[in-house]
Amino acid sequence: MTLNLLSKSTSIRSIAFYFLMTYSLIHPIVLNASPQAQLNVSRTSGPAPLAVYFDATGTTDTDNSISSFRQLGYSFCFGDNTNENWSLNGLSKNYENGGPLASHVFTQPGVYEVSLRVTNSTGQYSDTSVTITVLDANTVFDNTNTVVISTGNDFSGAPINAQQIANITSWPNWEHNTRYLLKEGDDFSSLGNIWITDISNFHLGSFGNSTKPIVSSIYISMDEDNAATPPQNGVIQGLAAHSISQRLMFTNLLIYQNDVIGDGSSITFGAANTWYAINQRGNSQPEDWKQSGPIFIVENHVNMQGDPTGPLNAIAGLGQHIAVLGNRSELAKEHTLRIFGTYKAVIGHNILTGPATDETRHDFKLMSNGINDWPSDHSIFEPGTTTEVLPNTQYVRIHNNTFGRPDAPHSWHLQVAPQDDGRSGTIEGLRDIIIENNTFIDGTIDDGVERGIHTLGHNIIERNNNFPTVWTTPIRYESYPSTYTTYSSLYTSFWHGPYYLDDVTPVTNSSICSTALNLNQPDNRDSIKVFPIPVKSGYLNLELPYKPQKGSLKIVNLMGKTIYSETIHDKTALINLNSYQKSLYILIIETQNETFTKRILLTD
């Protein structure tokens, strides 16, 4: 029997803790480690699928000479043992190693302990965690809170007791706190576009076992009169749509596993928000208007098919706490991903292949609106005025993406820089950007001209990226004074570096992330001696059959969180368990030759 770590029932609690130990002397976590981990989350509960943004940029280090953003290694473990991998690169979805920003979609109901370990270059670390509660959508949207819709009258596979709409000829009135499921295999495009305006806590998805339902364009919008109370918590999942657009303001929107394919097809977020804030506020006050977010765009397939007349960008927008993960975006008119400005964004595990034919556009273009600090409340206007803040773009992690394609006609793949024509009244500042673990594909442009990365900004970190060896200059960066833009004279030296190219990859430790514990774990009772059993004094003696050349030991709690992690070289060890709950443990000891396990009971 395999123990489900996501369950916290009374029976499992009675089992208490299990510990996994690799062979080495057990020491407690170093409490005075230099890093001091801090983890903020966008939300802690909601129905599946639940998208959560994880932000560790508040982490500090007692060594003030190092940069916590650049030089500490961050290991996120989401505690999600569904064994899923990103389909585009095969990496596990259950953990992230690298910079201090991450995001995850929890697809199954349960209670998850998300752990973060922050490690410095000497191996000292600090752990923290947060509990995420994912509710069963069938319970949250029970009975007629789920509406199932078909162009015919086949509702096989629909949730029991759901409200049914058969032979639909027009879209229903969308309501709060409701899940709408479209029949898979049906074509709803004749019903026209879907407009979901000022609706919170909704889920638009599908039911059945066929191809994705076909719809026209989907608009998630807000009436300009309601900027003080914008809509929140929405999911658009598993549909085949011409386009999906989030307009004006929204908090916590997940656009998930959709096919957006066709001439000019696109996904946009934060669309027209600033324009409405300035020109058409309705009854809302200027201070009501904020930048949209968090927004999650995850595992969609976007293909503009190179349409030369439609929208410019395949995925595009402006907002805060943006996650663009696991998408395939291709054949854009201009850019396959364009972010006009953002604060705290994570762009990972995507395949971004760039424009269909335009030689001057990019796979991903990251820009900003100005050089001012991003307001803590994400306001569009300065306090008490109608003057735009015009913030810089700050704190972005770009990781584990594939950029380009073999027949790509363009020369610059990833641009982290202002627009080259700029604006005469402002400059576009970008700062604190991590570009790591990406792969770049050689296109058709001359190898002396093709660039993987072009950048102009402050504190730009590039590390562990894979460039084609035939490129003579894979990275171009602008030094002060530059002549890159029409308005280069407006850019001070602050916005020209520092650039940390081929930077040292921080030490990370993903051992904090463990798979589910197996109750049938073998117990090598005759191989190792562990006494006393049960442990009553709080101290445990451990004796191996031989002195190992090298061994390692870790202690992991029921949720898979590593409590101890050391290496030892002695045959015996004395383990202090005084600080732990009275419970059941499993010790797993690894040497260079074999693995030992032992169950231990700690009692009063």
TrEMBL record:
Residues 35-134 form the PKD domain. Transmembrane segments: none annotated. PROSITE patterns: PKD. InterPro entries: Ig-like_fold, PKD/Chitinase_dom, PKD_dom, PKD_dom_sf, Secre_tail. It holds the Pfam family PKD_4. NCBIfam families: Por_Secre_tail. It comes from Seonamhaeicola marinus. This is T9SS type A sorting domain-containing protein. Keywords: Signal.
